[in-house]
Amino acid sequence: MFTTKIKGCLILLMLVMGAAALAGCVSNAPSITFRIEKGNMTVQDSVYARYADGTVTQAVYQGTAPNQTHDDYLMNNASNKTIVSGFVTNGTVSWVPDNIQNDFCRCYVIYTHNTAKLYNDWGKPTIPAVSAEIQSVSANAANAQHVDVTFAVYGAQHQFVDGLTEIFAHTNNPDVKFEINNSPSIAYESGYSKSASGGLVTFTLAPDPLNTSASPLEIANLDSFQISLKSGFKDIPINHEPTAISVSDKTISTGKGLTLHGNDLASDTDVGDQLRIDSASAQTPGIVNLTVSNGQLSIMPQSAGSTTITAYVYDTYSASARVTFNVIVEASAISRPNSSSDTGGGPVTSEQAADQAEAQADISSTISAEVELKNQIRVTIPAGAVSAKGTIKVALVPENQAPAADGKQSLTATFELTSTTGRTFAKPVELTFTYDAEHANKGQRGAVYYFNEQQQRWIFIGGTQNSDGTVTAYVNHFAKFAVFVYEPKVFSDLEGHWAAPYTERLIGMKVISGYPDHTFRPEEKVTRAQFAKMFVDALGLPMSDSAITFADDSNIPVWAKSAVVAAVKAGYIHGYEENGAKLFKPDQTITRAEMAVLIAKALQTDVALTNSKTIRFKDETDIPGWAKPSVTAAALAGILNGFEDGTFRSSNVATRAEAVAMIYKLLEAMHI
């Protein structure tokens, strides 16, 4: 252990517990030893020193320190370059371990993990830094000619990075320097490294003190500072949020509707940023039908009138802009032809007397069809929904033959939809019901349900309320349908959230629910017990009170036990084998890879056949071998789409939003 004078302060160069060895001081010492407490470094972790120009040098492992409680890592600085920090990295995240300063000399930085633990896991982040945004720019409190710039650092889902993520800032402007509190003096360098706290990191910039002609820094000229950021070895782009542009009223005069792209609603100054529309909603129901797919917004007319559309546009780094505009649907956009031949591309419609109990129409893969019965139900089948030529029929189910309502209050009769072409559709089919809203109490409305013959129960579909008192839903299979009273739930934290379109159906099915404070908490992590309950309830597996064979069955919550047993009996869950005992680990969070395995099993996909397929994710090498076929199967089924950067992130813990979206898509794929 030795000391050296550096830039006005004394620094201890044999540092205990950490890699941020020079936080608070800069150094040009010929060598530095990092002493790190045993049990923290893994085989993936490496220690580096950071120079002011942004380059790094690895510290080499030297062996166990004399006291046997720490490991030493030596970094040689033969060129005597200026070192501004140290950090630990595993190639995915880079961080500055937790620390306190020594009380007897403010210039010493001593790492004492045992006595002052500021963060769990010694500050190691779980969220890799992907982008940064300028949070604030202000004059420095101590020197008005200096400028404080605060950056918000984000992960791929536009969430703050956690732990003590290392952020290195550098300027290419020779007249600008970073101010470094080198107590009791101040140092100035072209680059400086700090750790983000709560996702935020602040750097102080100053005119070059060696340049007497340097002008005071001006906040308005921030771009002239030419700042770039790194975390570990990765460049961190400084992202400018997309800006909503003024959108004129859109008029729809034909049945083709309108398609909008991200650039139609927002602009972005960042070169190469791709704008995508993530979600949209209409203020007035029944005027238009909105579909967001592949970053585009499709607006299809439903009835004449106008409504306000609110859409959210995201950039490559998940920063968003909220855009509001009006859409006017003219009467010409909703006119319906009366008839067509069965060989052309126009719709085929049916007619029937008022007392008829059924109606039918011809259909094929090349034509659309529309069937309406007793002014109570209208079925619209698009071209391409069926693969063969045949007929489609909608029939009124006699009251004495209709399935029991299971305590639900019906608002329509039961109708059965059948066809000679098969039992499922390749494209969604539109069902529109007319019902008497006066039979629903305040806060209630009509929702479409279908009767599952295998499970012998009514299953919630939902639907959009139209201004003419009807409700429209989209289905991908034939069945018996009816409208029942439903009381929708409103959650304050789902407005504008990407998962909002998936939640209503699962809430209506009683698969999920919110919290007493009227929140849904979409970003909350999901445990294995919670996902098992959602999964079993959604699939309608028969519950069982049989004994659980897991060694930790006493840890399984009462509300989840029967669901866990059902999943085990159905072969979906097997648990872990550890030290001769079989464990379920109900409180352990579930990963995206684990969810993929359950989804593939539910699809009854021969995952062996997917081994010849190419996984469509950039990080496919990170996907565990036991999960790869299942991930591929779920991706091919359109259930798992990965992230915007093309990764799957198999080890990520699943959130409530992700779990809901996957289960929703699973039900669609299984025609439930």
From TrEMBL:
<protein>
    <recommendedName>
        <fullName>SLH domain-containing protein</fullName>
    </recommendedName>
</protein>
<feature type="compositionally biased region" description="Low complexity">
    <location>
        <begin position="351"/>
        <end position="361"/>
    </location>
</feature>
<dbReference type="Pfam" id="PF00395">
    <property type="entry name" value="SLH"/>
</dbReference>
<dbReference type="InterPro" id="IPR051465">
    <property type="entry name" value="Cell_Envelope_Struct_Comp"/>
</dbReference>
<feature type="signal peptide">
    <location>
        <begin position="1"/>
        <end position="23"/>
    </location>
</feature>
<feature type="domain" description="SLH">
    <location>
        <begin position="614"/>
        <end position="672"/>
    </location>
</feature>
<feature type="domain" description="SLH">
    <location>
        <begin position="547"/>
        <end position="613"/>
    </location>
</feature>
<keyword id="KW-0732">Signal</keyword>
<dbReference type="InterPro" id="IPR001119">
    <property type="entry name" value="SLH_dom"/>
</dbReference>
<dbReference type="InterPro" id="IPR013783">
    <property type="entry name" value="Ig-like_fold"/>
</dbReference>
<feature type="domain" description="SLH">
    <location>
        <begin position="486"/>
        <end position="546"/>
    </location>
</feature>
<feature type="region of interest" description="Disordered">
    <location>
        <begin position="335"/>
        <end position="361"/>
    </location>
</feature>
